[in-house]
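Could you join me in thinking about how sequence relates to backbone shape in a protein? Would you write everything just below, so we can both look at the same thing?
***
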Amino acid sequence: MPNPNPLIAEQLFASLTPPKLPLPLEDAQVWDAFRAGNEAAFIFIYETYFDRLFSYGFRVAGDACLVEDAIQELFIDLRNTRSRLKETNSIKFYLFTCLKRKLHREAAKWLHKRQEWETQTNFDFIISHEQHLIDKQVDEEGLNRLNDAVQKLSPRKKEVIYYFFYEELDYPQIQELMGLENIKSARNLLYKALDFLRDELNA
């Protein structure tokens, strides 16, 4: 794994006043600056992703205190091991993966938590007119029927739709987060979820 160049990192963040960036930077650049020891990059990542991590973690665990503690521990771990971290082109996906792993390790300590998370439905969402999850326009009545159909989806189907449409993750990322066997499994799960919604809308 190549070591991040601290000189490049300092150039990228030379005039940075947290949490705002003077110019948009690619995730890889921000991450490399952080790995190189740039504190402004760390603060930027923390302030940019904390709320999204909390929202995601709450969907996974359904326990606000547990999620907040896990996020704080995650950022402490990241800061302490920054020089050994892998490269990434998606900071959000990297953090999601780390947080979900940390939450699942916590759940493994308690049988009742494992059972609760396996049957949870925290990936609920409401579809609006601006979100084109199906390939046709729907009126208000159709939209209400569609959202009723969403509630009938299994937790796993809700989760895959959430990742793909709301977090804009790709199939390999979805496969990893959901622990699916391969990319085809992620694609098939999404297709099955959308087919179910189309069938319900056309019933």
